[in-house]
Amino acid sequence: MIIYLVRHGETDWNRAGRLQGQTDIELNERGREQAGKLREKLAGIELDAAFSSSLKRAKETRQIILEGRDIPAWDEPLLKEMNFGQWEGDMLKEIRADAAHPLHDLFEQPGRYAAPPSAESFEELSRRTWEFMNERLRPLEAVYGSVLIVAHGGAGRSILNPLSGVLAERFWEKPMGNCAVARIALEDGVFRLLDYDPGMASSSKKIGILGEEE
Fold it and tell me: pLDDT by residue (tens digit) across 76-103?
């Protein structure tokens, strides 16, 4: 099985630099354009099934990518973004600048982060995203040849980091712009990262999933 793991398109909160978490924010027009461009890039790739986080921004990204395709698709709560508790909506730059903010270590020193009440820990996030990978996706290896998954920046990294050897203290190190795409192989029950495009919002050179650099 080949898995295309995608981060959702841009939202107004992304553009403003606000922490979204599980607050259910829709795509903005740029986010819809990003998803449409990704649909065009993936047009020549056969997809057999699709999953997305149950949050609106991921569901809409999935729907745009799958426009014109008639394949089974599911909403998956296990793929929702990390829960940042009562601090969702805070400005990320202010969180990073304020050492007393309860989520400061989450972004500045991830290896030391201890989740405050109402927020989710890295361990809790990884437990549920890998529950999806191991219990929902792995049994489908013999059923589907290729699967689309649309998730989020934190949830996506919780899947990709172990596959690329990124340790907890470097959790946010991998650039992941809106509509970033990772291609993952599932073979004989083992997941393996094949290649990665860090997304349209990243300034880093993109590793083209279609064998090209952009």
Answer: 999 999 999 999 999 999 999 999 999 9
Q: What is the residue whose two structure tokens read 């599932």?
A: 186
Cβ-based neighbour number of residue 13 at 10 Å:
20
- Counted residue by residue, the chain has a size of 214
User: What does the pLDDT read at residue 199?
Assistant: 77
Count the Cβ atoms, other than its own, within 10 Å of residue 198. Answer: 20
Architecture of domain 2-81+121-197: 3-Layer(aba) Sandwich (3.40)
Q: How many CA atoms lie within 13 A of 18 on its CB side?
A: 16
The pTM score is: 0.92
At 212 the pLDDT is 31
Q: What percent of the chain has pLDDT over 70?
A: 93
- How far apart are alpha carbons 123 and 115 in whole angstroms? 10
Q: What are the structure tokens assigned to 37, written together?
A: 């461009």
Q: Given this model, what pLDDT does residue 200 score?
A: 53
Residues assigned a catalytic role: 8, 81
**Domain boundaries in the chain?**
2-81+121-197
